[in-house]
Every structure is written in structure tokens, then in C-alpha cells.
Amino acid sequence: MSSQPGAAERLPVFVYGTLRPGQGNHARLLRGRTTAEEPARLRGAQLYAGPGYPYAVTAPAESVIRGDLVTLAPVRYAELLAALDELEGYAPGDPRNLYERVAREVLPDGGGTVRAWVYLAADRLARRLRDDGTPLPGGDWLR
After folding, report:
1. In 20-92, beta strands by DSSP E
2. Are residues 11 and 115 in contact, defined by beta-carbon separation less than 8 angstroms?
3. What distance in Å separates the CA atoms of residue 74 and residue 85, rounded to the nearest whole number?
4. What phi and psi values does residue 105 have, to the nearest 5 degrees?
5. CATH assignment of the domain containing 129
6. Model confidence over 23-61: pLDDT tens digits?
7. Using the 8-state DSSP alphabet, how is residue 23 labeled?
8. Phi and psi of 97, rounded to 5°?
9. What is the number of structural domains in the chain?
């Protein structure tokens, strides 16, 4: 399931690469600015290797990506989401986007489902990755 909620909706963010706890962009942008971080999975997506960081691409439902569900601190939410958008090369409606920020159902390891923002490779890049990219076995960039 995928949809684009209103810009004012404050969802947690599912991260699967350099924004995961212990990684460089987490330390730079998120450390000390979140209220919760927990391991989680995203169904219906395939992870591809990229130069320096991974790309998630929509895939069949049985495909799974491992990552972390990160809840941004409410008092800094807008600032942090804008910083994440900039890092991911995302601007609403821009055809040059590297990623698109979409709302998806994420499965925290503790159980249940949570609606979260996920950065997926933009369509033109996703097509190229499906044709010529290198899928990451197991859907976990840290392995």
C-alpha cells in the first residue's frame, strides 16, 4: 500500500541505509533528534547497491528490506524532514528527484504495522536499477 498523505502529516521515517543508527548520516542528521528508533521491515521493496548508498525500489510483495523505524522529535520535525528531503534529493513534484518520499506500511520487529515515510528510488532511476542494478541479497544494507 502506498499513498501520499498531506504535507502536515507527521509520520515516522523508515531508514535503510546511511541514516540507520550507527551510520554516518544518522550521526550527522538524526542522533539526539529522535524519540524512538527500532528495527523494522518494509515489504514490497527490493534494495539495490548504489555508489555509496542503497536505493529501495518497489518490488513484489514477498521482497523485504530491513531497516529502522525512526520517530523524529516533534519540536524539530519540520526541520528534520526538510533536511532528510535535501539529503535524499527530493522536492515534491520535481522530475529530477533521485528519490520520492511516500507513505508505506512498515513492520516493526516488535509487532504490528506503522505508517511511515520511505524514500524510494524515483521512477526513471528505479527502471534503470531493475534493468542493470545490483540487488542486495537479504535486503539489508548493513550485511
Report:
1. 34-43, 45-48, 55-58, 64-72
2. yes
3. 17
4. -80, 130
5. 3.10.490.10
6. 999 999 999 999 999 999 999 999 999 777 899 999 998
7. S
8. -55, 140
9. 1
